[in-house]
Amino acid sequence: MKVVEDQPKIRVMEGSWSPLGTIREVVEGGAQEDPFYVMDLGEVVARYNNWRELLPRVEPFYAVKCNDDKLLVSTLAALGANFDCASKAEIQLITSLGVAPERIIFANPAKMASHIRYAAAMGVDTMTFDSETELMKIKQYMPHAQLVIRIRCDAAAAQCPLGIKFGCDAVHEAPRLLKLAAVLGLDVIGVSFHVGSGAGESAVYARGIALARALFTFAASAGHRRMALLDIGGGFPGGSDTSIAEVAGVINTALETHFPENTVRVIAEPGRYFAAAAYTLAAQIHAKREIPSKDGEDNESHTMYFINDGVYGSFNCVLYDHQNVAANPLYPTSEKPTPCSVWGPTCDGLDCVLPSTQLPPMSVGQWLVFRDMGAYTLPVASAFNGFPVPTVRTMLSAPLWSMLKEFWPLDEARLETGPPVSLPPSPPPLEAVTNHHAVFVECALK
Ligand SMILES: *Cc1c(COP(=O)(O)O)cnc(C)c1O
User: ∠ at Cα 286 (282, 290), nearest 5°?
Assistant: First the structure.
C-alpha cells in the first residue's frame, strides 16, 4: 500500500465544471509537463447514491485495494460506506481516518499471523477463511473472531478471475470446514463469495446467493446458530458507460427468493464500481516516430506516439487488470484518424499502452486524455526508470465541500484561500465546459 502524500490540492468549484475543462485549464497554464489526474469526488457521491437506490438491502464495504487514495476513502467513509481491508496497512489506513473497527471486514482468506493479531488489537473482528489451516491460525491468534466462509462462485467471464486463488468448493469442502470450525469452538456468522473482478455475467450472483443459502442451513445444523451475514463480494462494473441496474435486478430477486428474512445482513465489497469513473488521466506526447509502409508489403504506414505515463505507471492496469484503455485527444479535431500505437516513457519494449489504435494526427506537446482510470491504477504504479507517478487534482463542488469537510483529515492551518485561477487570454474553444467559474478555495492535505 502506498499512502498518498503527493495529494497537493483539493479544489472547490463553484458553478458547473467538468474534468475535461479542468485538464484544459491546467494544460493551457503552460507549466504542466508531467501526467496528472483530475478526480471528481462528485462522481463518487453519485455512485454511492445510485448504489443505495438500486441495492437498498446491500451495504457497500469498499475494497481498499482498488484505490487507497485518502480523499476517496475518507469521502466514502463520510457517506456511510464501510470497508473491505486485506492487510494490516489497509486496516491502519482506514482506522486512522476515524472509521470504527466494526465497519471493517478483513476479507483476505489467507492472512498473516501478525496481521490477525493486529486486527484483534484494533477490534476488527469479522474475517474470511477458506481453509483448514486458516481456521487453526485464527483459533490460535483470535479465537473470538466472527468468521465468514468464502466459497468459490465464478462468473462465466471476468477481467480478473479470483476463483483460481480463493474460495472453497461450496458442496465438497465448505460443509467439512463448517463442522471443523464448530469443533474448534470458532464462531462462523456468514458466507461470502467473489464472482471475479470486472465480471462479465450478472446471473452468477444468483448462483452465489443460492449456494450461500444452502450453507446457511447446513451451518445452523452444524452448530453455528448465529448465521447472519451474507457477503456478495465485488465484481461490479465501474466505467462511465456501464450500469449496475441489471446486476442489481438479479441480486434483489435472488435475495427475495433465498433470504426473505430481514435478520440476515447483506453486504458487498465493490472496488471498481466506486473508483473507476471518478479519475480522468491526462498524459502528454513527448516523442513520435513514423513507420513507413514497406514496398510490396501489405502493411499501412503507422505512427508511434510516446507519452509520459506507461505500464510501469498508471497503465499497469493494462498488464495486471487486463483493462482496455481508450486514448482521446484533449482537443478533438475533425481530421481523419490514422493507424497508430501509444507507448509509455520507459526504455522497456513491454511498455506499450495501446499496440494498435486510431488517432487523428497528433504533434509532440499535445495531450491525450484517458477516462475511467481510477480502479487498480495508482496503488500499483511505480516511478521505474525515473518517470514520476502522476499526481491527483481532486475537485468537488462547493455544496459537497461544506458537507464533507468535517470528515476529512485536513490540516485547516494549511487552508489557502487561493487567488482565482484565471484562464489564459484567448483559450481554444472549451466544449463540454459550461459556465466555468473560478476556484475560490484551495487547501492542502496534511
Ligand atoms: C479485489 C476484491 C474486491 C473488489 O473487487 P471489484 O471487482 O473491484 O469490485 C472485493 N473483495 C475482495 C475479497 C477482493 O479481493
Answer: 115
193: cell is 463469495
pTM for this prediction: 0.90
Confidence of residue 403 (pLDDT cuts 50, 70, 90): confident
Q: How many CA atoms lie within 13 A of 48 on its CB side?
A: 18
Give me ligand 1 centre to Cα 267, in Å.
13
CA of 315 to the centre of ligand 1 (A): 19
User: Which of 65, 68, 232 should be mutated for ligand 1, with most atoms under 8 A from CB?
Assistant: 65
CB 167 less than 6 A from any atom of ligand 1: no
Q: What is the dihedral of CA 413, 415, 416, 422, to 10 degrees?
A: 170
Residues 194 and 76 in one domain: yes
- Is 347 catalytic? The answer is yes
Q: Which domain holds residue 366?
A: 10-40+278-444
Could you report the per-residue pLDDT of 112-122, keeping only the tens digit for each?
Answer: 999 999 999 99
Cell digits of residue 95: 482506522
- Is any atom of ligand 1 closer than 6 Å to the C-beta of 270? yes
In a domain, 5, yes or no: no
Question: Residues with Cβ < 8 Å from 422, sequence gap 6 or more?
Answer: 438
**220 domain-assigned:** yes
Q: How far is the CA of 208 from the centre of ligand 1 (A)?
A: 15
Which tens digit of pLDDT belongs to each residue from 229-242? 999 999 999 999 99
Strands 36-40, 410-416: pairing is unpaired
Q: What are phi and psi of 298, to 5 degrees?
A: -90, 45
Among the options 160, 347, 352, 443, which is catalytic?
347
